[in-house]
Amino acid sequence: MDTIAKGKLHAVLLSSPGMGHIFPVIELGKRLTAHHGFHVTVFVARASSDPTAPESKTIEAAARLGLFDIIRLPSVDITGLVDPNATFITRLCVIMREAKPAFKAALSTMKVQPDLVILDLFLTEHLILGEELRIPTYTYVATNAWFLALFLYIPTLDKTVAGEYVDQPEPFDIPGCRPVLPYDVIEPMLDRNDQQYVEFLRMAREITMGNGILMNTWEELQSGTLAALRDAGLLARIARQPMYTIGPLTRSKEPVGLDSENALFDWLDRQSAESVIYVSFGSGGTLSADQLTELAAGLELSGKRFIWVLRTPTAKSGSGSFFGSESGSIDMWSFLPDGFLERTHGTGLAVGPAGERASPRGGRSVYVALWLELDPGEHCQRGVHDCLAALRGAEDERGAAGGGLWGGLQAEGSAGREDGGEAGDSWLGE
pTM for the whole thing? Predict the structure, then answer.
């Protein structure tokens, strides 16, 4: 649009490629326009490959709403800039680095200059544009405060920890937060010699350059970690800018697949409390055929009730769906062990990618969201016995001291409900 109604603030949002990045940015754009009266322009960066069908569908659906403008930046070719086997995080960072000139040019030539720019987590290199163009810039962390606390502390751990994080004998103390167990670190921290760790370390240092950080959480859910992030004696000495809670922002539901979704919820409602394991690798996560078979065997032999969001296997990395479409001509069910669906009938449910729209909605039957690293790396190689150990050990880990990332989030949620949580900086929240 060439003009903006008088009194409206103009916010520019930039998303990196990938469904897990586009969705949160679009939902934030909806919140800003519908609830806070902003004029919003959303830029979406493109990989060198064609956008996946779900990406195109999502962008087109958002454009049809007419709530804000959506502009796709020119695609960039990173051939020769990264190793063909580089992780998706490395590739994503290089893509956004190469897209920076196009985004700066687009900002500079807008007829109505933005009042603020909001960037997703993988765009910290773009924060410098705020200084150059004299525009306030914010980073949008679409996960939660617990992740942000660890993320901000990575540069400190990099200086103080010798060797690989996963080989350390003791948990890592994050100021004001629950400790992080060595085997519970996020994927980029698994191998300090990998380029994705270098990129993540850089991002953790750069995020402090912006005018503020937006988090998809709310005060009562993570009151303890939020307090640590805002305490000048704890994590606020690392990131001194304001921290804003803007959640919960969730994906808008589409009027499709309602029958199957209701059937899934009905099945959940019939299960006893905390008895179901939910297994999903996100919008881009995929397994190889061998890994899928191993996971199926682990789920079956564990005897636990489960919901498993199944995707077609890939020969690429465990994030193979981020930069390419899944082939509709391949029957993903054919990769399951013979008789698996029959033997687990009544105990577990395997659903296709559309089942991600029917992820557990906080019902009491959900036991734990299981995170299994199944990438073929030195620290991640898992087999049937490891799957069984993870599944059978989940109950012990839930109550263990430290509790890992999931345990910390669970504990904080409970604490927040008990003390009511203090109303802190709640910007854009409802």
Answer: 0.70
